[in-house]
Amino acid sequence: MKMIIGGVYQGKTKFAVSEFGISEIKDGEKCNISEVFTTKCIKNYHILIRRLMDENIDPVEFTVRLCSENDDITVIMNEVGCGIIPIEKGERIWREMCGKCGCIIAENSCSVVRVICGIGTYIKGKNV
Amino acid sequence: MITLITGGSKCGKSSLAERIICGFSGKKFYIATMKPYGDEAFQAIERHREMRKGKGFKTIGKYNNLSEITLPEKCVVLLECMGNLCANEMFVDGRIINPTEKIIRDIKYLDSIAEHLVIVTNEVGNDGISYEKGTEEYIACMGKINRKIAEAAENVIECVYGIPFVLKGELCY
């Protein structure tokens, strides 16, 4: 399992393609939720977390299951935890869920890359 | 040669940029892109002016169209900052103009004259908040501009609470 994180518009998906040679990427914003368990790569995992919450699926349980059933996956997700804690409760819970799920994915990943300005830095492991 | 310095707000990017540029020989120019509107802008400008005092910078206040600036060959230039320049080029008379290509062209122009060009930019896309259309477009443009400059730059440094973290190239001062 690998993980690519970073702010918006930093070039995370492009990095996944060039660094890991990934050709098919599912989009967490619109893919079928069950596809996550078989795909080689998913982007916008932070948006998938919101969709899971909308569907009353526990994102933490879902992520734990993902880590055990599809440990070959590369997960791309935005860093969303900086800045002011949102006033709206739903937004707050979503951010917390992103944080918790992100930690689980990072823990289970052999490599974690943070992308800034299109430049990837391995903050865990390396390209294997 | 371009050195790009990025990071969050008030994380020591300016003083790092000045340290880097003061290590170079050549006439020093400071391109200030912040329009002096309002108390906070005045305070920020005054603070930066104080920081640069006695370091031999010639300050040029230029808020857009950087290719109109005339500079001598082999000078060293500190451009601060991309966040203001992007907003100035983007939001004009109530309209939104995508400034990416123009800004990159202007940066290449400055780089072609200056011996060293140090650019201070901002990270604006890490708070997970969805904004209204204009702001979202601004965040997207900042991401694209930063990526394009980083690609052309020799050195890219992220500043974290004053600590320089090398993303590309090296830190020289």
List the helices and strands and how they pair.
The complex is a heterodimer of chains A (128) and B (173).
Chain A: E1 2-6, H1 12-20, E2 26-27, E3 41-43, H2 45-54, H3 59-69, E4 74-78, H4 89-108, E5 111-116, E6 119-124
Parallel strand pairs in A: 1-4, 1-5, 2-3, 3-4
Antiparallel strand pairs in A: 5-6
Helix pairs in contact in A: 2-4, 3-4
Chain B: E1 2-7, H1 13-22, E2 28-32, H2 38-52, E3 57-61, E4 76-80, H3 82-90, E5 91-92, E6 95-96, H4 100-113, E7 116-120, H5 133-152, E8 155-160, E9 163-168
Parallel strand pairs in B: 1-7, 1-8, 2-3, 2-4, 4-7
Antiparallel strand pairs in B: 5-6, 8-9
Helix pairs in contact in B: 4-5
Characterise this structure.
The complex is a heterodimer of chains A (128) and B (173). Helix content of chain A is 39%, strand content 21%. Chain A has 128 residues and is an alpha/beta fold. Chain A has one domain: 3-Layer(aba) Sandwich (Rossmann fold), CATH 3.40.50. A six-stranded mixed β-sheet of chain A has the order 2-3-4-1-5-6, with helices on both faces. In chain A, helix 2 (45-54) packs across helix 4 and helix 3 runs parallel beside helix 4. Chain A is globular, with a radius of gyration of 14 Å. The mean pLDDT of chain A is 94. Chain B is an alpha/beta fold and 173 residues long. Chain B has one domain: Rossmann fold (3-Layer(aba) Sandwich). Chain B contains five helices and nine strands, in the order E-H-E-H-E-E-H-E-E-H-E-H-E-E. In chain B, the strands form two sheets. Chain B has a seven-stranded mixed β-sheet, with helices on both faces. A two-stranded antiparallel sheet of chain B has the order 5-6. The radius of gyration of chain B is 15 Å and the shape is globular. The model of chain B has no long low-confidence stretch (mean pLDDT 93). The interface between A and B is medium-sized, with 21 and 24 residues.
